[in-house]
Write a structure and sequence with these properties.
This protein is mainly alpha-helical. Helix content is about 50%, strand content about 10%. The protein has three helices and two strands; from the N terminus they run H-E-H-E-H.
Length: about 90
């Protein structure tokens, strides 16, 4: 069984890593609202990344989740289905 301290350490390390990646993004003042975009498949990695960004980004920064589907009507792709479930 994994201890609570190990889980907390993993969370803290992931949060620090994510923060390092976005803290030096040169947001352009010409746009009304700065935006960070995540390619969101709904898998474990993109879901964790999006959740951490929600917690870490300043309130004035918008987080956009983007999912691309190349299947017929766009609703039957496994990534599309998983992303909708993860977002919910």
């Amino acid at each position: 069984m994994v201890s609570q301290q190990i889980l907390l350490d993993i969370h803290n390390l992931l949060s620090l890593s994510v923060k390092k990646r976005f803290e030096n993004i040169p947001f352009n003042d010409k746009f009304q609202q700065p935006t960070v975009l995540v390619m969101f498949s709904g898998g474990l990695d993109s879901t964790i990344l999006a959740a951490l960004l929600c917690d870490l980004l300043p309130e004035n920064v918008c987080l956009d989740l983007v999912n691309v589907s190349f299947s017929g009507d766009g609703t039957t792709s496994p990534d599309r289905i998983t992303s909708i479930i993860s977002y919910s």
